[in-house]
Amino acid sequence: MTAATLGTILLGGILADATWEIWARFITPFWVGGPLQPAALVQSVFGFRNLALAELIHLVVGVVFYPIGYLYIARPIADRFLPFLPWPVVALGYGVGLWTFALYVMAHLIAGFPAFLGFIQLTWASLVGHLLFALVLGAVVQRRLPAPR
To answer: Which parts pass through the membrane (predicted)?
Structure first.
């Protein structure tokens, strides 16, 4: 991994995660009556009470692992099989994938909540947050490491 790639992963992750946090903590409460709390899901999945650790886990996933997934999994698959798709569509698809992972795999299959939390308002707020996260991440990656098309 080059320094430029690492810088892109971290910059994209930081900006995307900051966008998520603004959406989740400051805008979502006006829509659903409270913030999105992914750390609470992390606590449910791993079965511990330490909120600070849960926040740290969610932060590291958002800043490091989700950007790596976009750069090394989602974008190469799109480039190989759907090269005609513009990067914002690829990013939005990745956002839907992150949302599905969070609210179906983690919340439902692992933590035992209803699939997609029963499609309550919080579900849709989470979808918007994941789409915003992915668009910001995709924009940073596209700007710094343009896809060969």
So the answer is: 51-73, 85-107, 119-141
Q: What are phi and psi of 24, to 5 degrees?
A: -70, -40
Buried b (16+ CB within 10 A) or exposed e, 47-74: eeeeeeebbebbbebbbbebbebbbeeb
Asked whether residue 39 is assigned to any structural domain, the reply reads yes
Q: Residue 105 carries which side chain, given as an amino acid letter?
A: V
Residue 58, domain extent: 3-144
Domains: count for the chain: 1
Confirm whether 116 is domain-assigned. Answer: yes
**For 72-107, how does the pLDDT look when each residue is reduced to its tens digit (9 = 90+)?**
999 999 999 999 999 999 999 999 999 999 999 999
Return the closest-CA partner of residue 32 out of 124, 145, 142, 139.
124
- Kindly report, residue by residue over 100-124, the tens digit of the pLDDT: 999 999 999 999 999 999 999 999 9
